[in-house]
Amino acid sequence: MKCAELQRHFDEYLDQECAPEIRELIDEHLTGCADCRAEMASRKAFHAAFAGLVEEELPCDFNAVFSERLAEEERRQPRRKPLYRRAWAKGVALAACLLLVVGVIGSMPGLFGVQGTDAAAMESGAASEPAASRMANQMVTDTDIVYSKTAEAETTEEAPAGEMAVEESTSSYDAGEGAALPAVEPDSAVMERKIIKDWYISLEIMDYDVAFAALEELATRYGGYVVSADSYQSADSEYRDGWISLRVNAEQAEAAVAEIATLGVVESSSYSTSDVTSEYYDIEARLSQYQAQEERLLEMYDAAETVSDLVTIETELVRVQSEIESMEGRLRYYDQLTALSLIEISLYTPNPYTQTVEPQGWAGFVQNLREHFLRGINNLLDFVANLVYFLVSALPVLIILAVVIVVIVVLIRHRRHRRP
Amino acid sequence: MKRERGAALPAGDSSVLAERELIKKAKAGDNAAFRQLVDAYSKRIYNIGLKMLGNSEDAADMTQETLLKIYRNLGGFRGDSAFSTWVYRISVNTCRDALRAVYRRHERVFSGFGEEEAEDGFPEVADYSALPEIIYIEGEEMRYLQRLIDGLTPKYRLVVTLRELSGLSYQEIADAAGISVGTVKSRLNRARAAMRSQAEQDAEQFPQLLRLMGKEGGARA
Ligand SMILES: [Zn+2]
Question: Which of A33, A49, A107, B193 is the most buried (most CB within 10 A)?
C-alpha cells in the first residue's frame, strides 16, 4: 500500500516539484523496492517522450497582421505615455509661458491689446466652445496627450476673468506657432467642433468587486454603458487586476472622471483627443450634394417616359441612395463617438507582496535611483511651471508694484542727490 | 533535463534586466521596444492557443488579441509579479474567452477551466472517443503524444500544455490558470494517469507505443 501512495508523487518527483521530505522518502524507498524502481523508470520514459514535443512556428503573415492591428489600435487610442512624455509636455507648457512673459514684457502697450482681440475671438468663436478652449484642444491634438496637471488649464473654459492669464498663454502659443497648427477653415467659427475625447485612468482600489460595481453603476448614471471588461486574479486570491471600458455622456465625462477618482487612488490619469471636425463637415457637405442629386433624380424618375430612361435613372438612384446611407452612417458614428466619451480604467488592488518583491541589489538600486531622479525632475518642472503660472497671473500687480518701486527709488535718489 | 527545454522565459538575471528595460521603454511609448518585448512570447502564446483551440486561425486570432491586451494594459503592469506570469495570465484568460466562442459555434457549453469548481467528484479527465480514428502511425510518436493531449478535457489540457509545451513551473501554471499549486499537482497527476492508461490501451493494438513507457515491446511483440 505504501508503494501506491508514494507512486502518486512520482510525477512531481520527475518534475522536480516534490516537497523535500517526500523526495527523501521516495529516494529511500526506491533503493529497496524493485517494483517502484520499474514504475519510476517507466514514468521517466513517458516524461522524456513529452520533452520531444516542439512548438509550432507562427503563421507567416502573423507579424504583418499584428503590425496592422497595432497601428489601428494606436490610431484609435494613442497610448498614455508616462514620465518622459509628461516632462516633455510640461516643458512645452513652460516654454509657452516663458514665450508669453517675454512677449508681454517686450511689448508692454500690447498687453491689453492681446486681451482685447482674444475676447473678440471668443465672441465670434464657436457656438458651443470658447475660442480659448478650442485652441487648447488643438494644442492637445498637437501633443496627443495632456496630463491632468495640464488638463486643469483646459478646464478654464468658463473661468472667471482673474484666470485670464492661463487662457492667454494658450492663445499666445497659437500666435507664436500658428504656422505649425492645422489651418482652421474660414467658416469653422460658426460650426460646432467635433472632438473625440478618450480618457485613461489607473486606479488602485481596495475591493475589486465593490469598485467594479460602482463603475458599472456610474456608467449608466452618466448616460452611458460598459463597453468591455476583463479581470485577473492571482492564484492565492491576494491580488486582483483588470480593466473596464466605459462610455459616458461626453459633456459629463469630466465629472465622471472626477467621481471615478474618488473610488481609489489615482496613479495616472490622462486623455487624448482627436479632432474630426473637418472630416465631419466634409461628409455633411457631400451628403447635402447627394441629397440634392437624389431629389433631382426623383423628379426625373417621375417625368421619365421610356422604360430605358426609367432603368437608367433607377440605377443611378440606387447608387446615390446607398452613398447617402453610408455617409449618414458615418455621421452617426462620429456623433456617437463625440457624444459619448470613452473612459478606460485599469483597476488593481494593492499587492501584499510589493515590499518583498522590490528589485534587489545593484540593479534595483540603479532603477530606484533613476526613478527618483525622474521624479525629482518632474517635481522641479512642476514647481517651475507653478511658479511661472503664479508670476504670469501676478504680472499686472507686479508691474504696478515695479512702477511704484521705481518711482520711489528715483525719488529717493533724487533727494539724496539734492541733499549734499 | 526538462527545464532546459522548458525555458521559463526569463532565463537569467541579464535577460530579466533586459526585459525590464524593454518594458520601461514600451511603457514610454516605444513601439519597437514593445514588439521586441512580446516577440519572445508570441510563439509560445500561439502554441497554447493551438492546443486549446485546435486550429491555427483561432490560435492566431487569440494570440493577436492577447498581444493587443498586453499593449493596452502595459501601463497597469507594475512589476509586482514577473512579466511572464502576467503575460501567461492574459493568454489563459483570452484563451478561455476564445474557447467559449468556439464551443458556442458548435453549440456546446464551455464552463471555463474549472477555476472555481471543487476538485472532488468524478471529473472527466479525457475523452478519446471524439478524436479521429487514426491512432498511431509508425515513427510518429510525437503526433501520438499530441493526440493524447488533445483528448484531455480543457482544464486538464491547459495544465498539461503549460507544463509540457510552455515548460512552466507548477507555481507559474497556478498563477496563469488562477488555481492553486495543489490543484495544479492533482490535475497533472490525473491527466498523466489518463494519458498513460490510454497509451497502455493503445499499445495492445500498436505495441511500438510501449517504448513511450520505457517498456520493451517493439515490433516483435
Ligand atoms: Zn514500492
Answer: A49
